[in-house]
Every structure is written in structure tokens, then in C-alpha cells.
Design brief:
165 residues; Beta Polymerase, domain 2; GrpB/CoaE; GrpB family protein; two-stranded antiparallel sheet; single chain; 6 helices; NT_sf
């Protein structure tokens, strides 16, 4: 059983910001038309984080297969994640902090990571609610946390602030 732990985002801010800029440059070199976004808790001040960096790479539909091929040369596939015609996940556990890459087709079903970030950035009550969820699962089973996190984000997607994006 994998246990989940959280730290204040400030613990990782400098490393996460540096790694994001480095990885954005690498990704843009192979995918110049990509929209590369820093998403996840390290992108949200005052939030709790597991200590990893999440990047969303948004690409037009016609460029998706090329993007999958290009990112596959740079990162390992995230085998625990789904694969569709508009979404792939990659990772690099050797970086500090560890790195997760979510490749999405713009306006597709999985093109929501940047929206979660923007809603949490602009509505502190939602960030606080998310942090309370994290505190509840501190030191507990990662799978239980992931399910609760999914439930939270499904709820967040129904809020007026999310639907307006």
C-alpha cells in the first residue's frame, strides 16, 4: 500500500518553478506549437502538495500523434494512466521534484487541468476545501486519496466558476 503525504507548496516552489521552465523549454523545442502549462498544486500558492510537478501540454488534434511520439522519446509513459486518442500521460521520477506530463488535445474531454488550476487560483475557498481533503488523507492509502480527489474534481467541474472557463 502506497501512503500519501503532503507538504506546503513553498517547500518545492523554487525547484518546481525551475524544473517547469527547464522542461517547458525542452518540450517547446520538439513541439513548438504546444501550449505548455504549469498545473497541479505546485502552481497554486499556499496549497498542500505531494511534491511533484505537473505539466499540461496542450496540442491541436492534427499534432497529437506526433506529440505522443516526441514526448515518448523524452519521458516514460505513465503506465497507471489511461490512454485515449486525445490524452496520454508521461512521467520522469528522476527529476527533483518528480515530473508528470499530461498531453491533451485542446478542447478535448481531458483538456481540464489548466481549468482546475485557474479555478483554485482565483477562488481561495475551493483551494482551502481541496487542502482540507488532503489533510483528511494525510498518511493514508494513496488509492483512497485518489478516489476522493477525483470526486472533488468532478464536483469542481460542476461549479459556475469552472463551467465559465
Amino acid at each position: 500500500m502506497e501512503i500519501v503525504t503532503f507538504l506546503d507548496h513553498n517547500t518545492f516552489k523554487t525547484e518546481a518553478d525551475h524544473l517547469f521552465m527547464e522542461q517547458k523549454s525542452i518540450i517547446k523545442a520538439v513541439l513548438p506549437n504546444a501550449d505548455v502549462q504549469h498545473v497541479g498544486s505546485t502552481a497554486i500558492p499556499n496549497s498542500l502538495t505531494k511534491g511533484d510537478l505537473d505539466i499540461q501540454v496542450r496540442i491541436e488534434p492534427a499534432e497529437f500523434e506526433n506529440a505522443v511520439e516526441a514526448l515518448s522519446k523524452l519521458y516514460a509513459p505513465n503506465e497507471g494512466s489511461i490512454q485515449t486518442e486525445s490524452f496520454r500521460a508521461f512521467k520522469d521520477d528522476t527529476t527533483i521534484p518528480p515530473l508528470g506530463i499530461q498531453l491533451t488535445v485542446v478542447h478535448s474531454e481531458f483538456d481540464f487541468f489548466w481549468k482546475f488550476r485557474d479555478v483554485l487560483l482565483s477562488h481561495d475557498r475551493y483551494r482551502q476545501k481541496y487542502d482540507e481533503l488532503k489533510k483528511k488523507y494525510e498518511g493514508k492509502d494513496m488509492e483512497l486519496y485518489r478516489q476522493a480527489k477525483n470526486d472533488f474534481f468532478e464536483w469542481l467541474m460542476e461549479t459556475p466558476e469552472f463551467t465559465m472557463l
